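S.,

Sequence below, as promised.
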Amino acid sequence: MAHRLGPQSARIIIIEYLDYQCPYSAEAEEALRETLDSFKGEVALEVRHFPLGELHEWAGAAALTAEAAANQGKFWQMHYLLFQNQDELDMELMLGLAEEMGLNLNKFMADLQNPKTLDRVKLEIAQGEKQGVEKTPGIFVNGLKFEGEITPESLKEAIENALDASKAKK
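The prediction came back faster than expected:
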C-alpha cells in the first residue's frame, strides 16, 4: 500500500507519515535520504500521507497530487518536487509540476478527482492515527516510534539498534 524506497528484503523498515507543507517533514526527508544511502540493502523507507489540513491549506491536495502521479509510475519524482516547492504549493503549481513531468494530464486530473485516491489518503491518515501519530513527521523504525530530533546521526543510531535487535532474535 505505502510507497517504498529500498528492497522488499530489507530487515529494517522505516515508516514516515508526512505532510508536504510541513517544514519538519521536509527536513526529515533530507535526513532519511542521507541515512538510507548509508544502509543500502538493509533499510527500506515507506512513506504515508498524513496531511495536517488545519495547519497547511494545500497539504491534502498535495497528497492527492502525489497519488495521482503514482498512478502513472511517478510517485517519487512528484514526492521530491512537492517538497522542493513546499512554500509555493497551490493547485496551479501542482498541475504545472504534473505537466513538467510529462504526465498524461487527462488521466492525472481524473485520478486526482477519483474517490479511490482520496480513500487511500484517508486510510493512511487512519493508520497513522491508530499508531499514535499526532504531528508530522511521524517516524517508526521497525514498528517503534522514533522520538527526538530527526538527524542522520539519530536515525543511524535507531537503525543500528534495530539491526542489533534483529540479530539478537536469530
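The first strand starts at residue 3 and ends at 5.

Coffee later?
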